[in-house]
């Protein structure tokens, strides 16, 4: 038990993992306009726990996080500063990484699986590639609630992992489902779709459900809660239609498929802060070709008008696995992710066009970065790029270093996958967070005549667009939470904050990164004269990404690696399989 002492003389007893909202009507503070400069908090342990850390972050809300190394638990206390504008709502977050400074795991940088799967679930779909079910049940014990229907959709190829899932399912109301796949395809989507009494939670993230993936690597997650439909709700929404289509493509047993689709239909997804980016195996023609993979991205971006400075701006593609690609296929990807238009000074609308001299930057760790990482050489096992793919002549000039210093994650190797178009002054045209690695299997490949898109794998991601961010801020369901109280990380994503963001009157055409850490500085609602919306985007690496230097060698899982790593481990030459 910890005791938080407030300057008005009152105290609040908290236990590890508790969340308390402090403010008018919540705790004994008379002034609803208290800011960080007026509000001090001290924390003492009544149990004399060692290693106590307390940090106050930002001004609105003031977030106080306390942890002890002895208990390994965290307590978050949020002061809702009702007299001042709300803090920026980050559109996505990063998973907490063990061993970082508290500030690098604060706010939107501190998501945990237990934040996402809380007690009270009525139905839950877990979608992933690899699942350690024992670890997942420790992280989210609410999955064992009596009567809860859990649908697991997986691509796990480890017999022992599948056996463990099926053994748990045999004693509970669970389904374990592995979709059929074409040769060389995977079920790679990482998502939760959760029904609560108060609404529907959709989570799209990048981590396999394995201990090391969720605790020691750089991972991202997009989370949004949606309410049930009411009389004002539209019958359908673009996000809902795409999610419906994707769920149908999983080919679940009829009863589960019907329930999943009906669940989407019962909820109002019109406030979606992002567009869905699915990939579904098959040969897609006609209109279906525009629903998946890089052609879906092309269609979404082609509808947008971006700032003039985005014309021929560079692209960053950041991923953790690499398939066998060709120069022609890289050109297809570049065409899709270069879509969109801008208005020139004389009012003309022109295409953005492909990147100019700065080109495409492929963000990928060097061999030395892997060696010095928090997992040492072992981290490279989750970055399975082989020499034949990584050393492709079309890619070698494009490599850029993993710049995780921006988020305190220099030594936490990336398993996150992100794609964006940026300018040197930290503006983004758009941002993609997805399960898609850089491969034809994930994004799809057009045939020579461009009449068919062939995809081998299931993938799911989101596209953050200025127009959708603006609509979200104006929507009556902005900040909706389907259950409470939310964790500090979910509050930083706006969940449970309510519709506090004012929608800018100027049409939004771009996104301005306001911070790369977990703080809450700045109001976050401003839009520039050019229509660039300021928003807290926790991009975990530096922009622009730094090109490889003369001594940098891209990591390859089958290369020859010599030397002792950061953990004192040495591997034997090229024996890395």
Would you kindly provide a written description of the structure presented here, covering whatever features stand out?
The protein is α+β, with helices and mostly antiparallel strands. Among the domains are: 83 residues, no CATH class; 152 residues, Endonuclease, Chain A, CATH 3.30.870. Helix content is 18%, strand content 23%. It contains 13 helices and 29 strands. A hairpin with a 4-residue loop joins strand 5 and strand 6. Helix 5 runs antiparallel to helix 6 and helix 7 runs parallel beside helix 8. About 15% of the residues have low confidence.
Secondary structure elements and pairings:
Blueprint lengths: L1 E4 L5 E4 L4 E4 L19 E4 L7 E5 L4 E7 L4 E7 L13 E2 L18 H4 L6 E6 L4 H7 L9 E6 L4 H12 L3 E4 L13 E6 L2 E7 L5 H6 L3 E7 L11 H12 L4 H12 L9 E5 L2 E4 L7 H10 L2 E2 L8 E4 L8 H11 L3 E3 L5 E3 L8 E4 L3 H5 L15 H4 L8 E2 L17 E5 L4 E8 L5 H4 L1 E2 L5 E4 L3 E6 L1 H9 L13 H5 L17 E4 L18 E4 L42
Parallel strand pairs: 3-7, 9-10, 10-11, 17-19, 18-21, 21-22, 28-29
Antiparallel strand pairs: 1-2, 1-4, 5-6, 6-7, 8-14, 9-12, 12-13, 13-14, 15-27, 16-26, 18-23, 19-20, 23-24, 24-27, 24-28, 25-26
Helix pairs in contact: 5-6, 7-8
Pfam family, one: Tyr-DNA_phospho
Protein name: Tyrosyl-DNA phosphodiesterase 1
InterPro entries: Tdp1
CATH top level label of the domain at 114-265: Alpha Beta
CATH topology of the domain at 114-265: Endonuclease, Chain A
Number of helices: 13
Largest sheet: 9 strands, mixed
* Rounded mean pLDDT score: 84
CATH architecture of the domain at 114-265: 2-Layer Sandwich
Q: Cα-atom Rg, whole angstroms?
A: 23 Å
Outline type = globular
Given as residue ranges, the uncertain stretches (5+ residues, pLDDT < 50) are 14-87, 515-525
Care to count the β-strands? Answer: 29
Distance between the termini: 47 Å
Strand content: 15-25%
The CATH homologous superfamily of the domain at 114-265 is termed Endonuclease Chain A
Helix content: 10-25%
The helix/strand class is alpha+beta
């Amino acid at each position: 038990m910890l005791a938080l002492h407030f300057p008005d003389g009152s105290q609040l007893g908290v236990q590890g993992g508790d969340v308390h909202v402090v403010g008018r009507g919540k705790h004994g503070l008379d002034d609803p306009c208290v800011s960080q400069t007026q509000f001090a908090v001290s924390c003492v342990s009544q149990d004399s726990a060692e290693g106590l850390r307390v940090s106050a972050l930002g001004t609105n809300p003031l977030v106080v996080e306390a942890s002890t190394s002895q208990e390994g638990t965290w307590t978050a206390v949020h002061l809702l500063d009702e007299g001042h504008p709300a803090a920026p709502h980050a559109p996505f977050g990063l998973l907490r990484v063990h061993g970082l400074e508290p500030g690098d795991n604060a706010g939107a940088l501190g998501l945990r699986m237990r934040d996402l799967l809380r007690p009270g679930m009525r139905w839950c779909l877990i979608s992933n590639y690899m699942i350690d079910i024992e670890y997942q049940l420790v992280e989210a014990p609410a999955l064992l609630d009596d009567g809860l229907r859990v649908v697991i959709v997986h691509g796990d190829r480890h017999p022992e992992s599948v056996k463990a899932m099926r053994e748990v399912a045999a004693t509970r109301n669970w389904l374990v489902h592995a979709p059929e796949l074409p040769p060389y395809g995977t079920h790679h989507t990482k998502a939760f779709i959760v029904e609560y009494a108060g609404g529907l939670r959709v989570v799209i993230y990048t981590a396999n459900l394995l201990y090391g993936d969720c605790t020691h690597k750089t991972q991202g997650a997009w989370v949004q809660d949606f309410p049930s439909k009411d009389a004002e709700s539209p019958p359908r929404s673009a996000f809902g239609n795409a999610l419906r289509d994707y769920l149908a493509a999983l080919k679940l047993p009829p009863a589960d498929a019907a329930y999943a689709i009906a669940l989407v239909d019962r909820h109002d997804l019109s406030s979606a802060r992002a567009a869905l980016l699915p990939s579904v195996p098959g040969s897609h023609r006609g209109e279906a070709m525009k629903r998946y993979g890089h052609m879906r991205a092309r269609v979404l971006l082609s509808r947008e008008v971006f700032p003039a400075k985005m014309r021929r701006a560079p692209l960053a593609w950041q991923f953790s696995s690499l398939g066998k690609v060709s120069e022609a296929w890289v050109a297809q990807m570049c065409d899709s992710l270069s879509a969109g238009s801008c208005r020139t000074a004389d009012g003309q609308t022109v295409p953005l066009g492909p990147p100019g001299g700065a080109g495409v930057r492929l963000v990928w760790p060097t061999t030395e970065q892997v060696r010095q990482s928090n997992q040492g050489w072992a981290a490279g096992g989750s970055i399975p790029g082989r020499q034949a793919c990584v050393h492709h002549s079309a890619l070698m000039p494009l490599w850029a270093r993993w710049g995780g210093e921006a988020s305190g994650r220099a030594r936490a190797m990336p398993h996150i996958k992100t794609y964006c178009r940026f300018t040197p002054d930290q503006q983004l045209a758009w941002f993609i967070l997805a399960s898609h690695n850089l491969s034809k299997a994930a994004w799809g490949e057009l045939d020579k005549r461009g009449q068919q898109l062939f995809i081998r794998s299931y993938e799911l991601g989101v596209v953050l667009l200025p127009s959708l961010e603006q609509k979200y801020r104006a929507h009556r369901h902005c900040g909706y939470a389907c259950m409470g109280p939310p964790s500090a990380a979910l509050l930083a994503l706006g969940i449970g904050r309510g519709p506090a963001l004012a929608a800018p009157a100027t049409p939004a055409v771009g996104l301005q990164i306001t911070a790369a850490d977990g703080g809450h500085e700045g109001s976050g609602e401003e839009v520039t004269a050019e229509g660039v919306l300021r928003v807290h985007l926790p991009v975990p690496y530096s922009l622009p990404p730094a090109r490889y230097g003369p001594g940098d060698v891209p990591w390859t899982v089958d290369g020859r690696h010599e030397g002792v790593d950061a953990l004192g481990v040495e591997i034997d030459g090229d024996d890395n399989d």
